[in-house]
Design a protein that fits this description.
The chain has 90 residues and is α+β, with helices and mostly antiparallel strands. It has one domain: 2-Layer Sandwich (Histidine-containing Protein, Chain: A). It is 33% helix and 27% strand. It has 3 helices and 4 strands. A 4-stranded antiparallel sheet has the order 1-4-2-3. The longest helix is centred in the last third of the chain and has 13 residues. The chain starts with a strand and ends in a 7-residue tail after the last helix. The relative contact order is 0.32.
Amino acid sequence: MIIEKQLTIVNKLGLHARAATQLAKLANQFESKITIHQGEKEAFANSVLALMMLESSQGKQVLLRCEGNDAESAIEAIENLIVNKFNEDE
């Protein structure tokens, strides 16, 4: 199963080190191949360095793509993390 969802980075600091670490830890809990695309750039969601190289700042649109048996659960969990601003106090 492949699921894609367009999301907006809403937290003030964007996909910085702490947020990227949270996202990578969450992505590693799933069997699915999870990638995040921003323009021409693509990153595996389980790699903190790759996520930071996307340079996703507040307001940027990203495409979340999950491929595998638990894709639905993965996309839902990651969407919640992004929508909830990586649980950061702003």
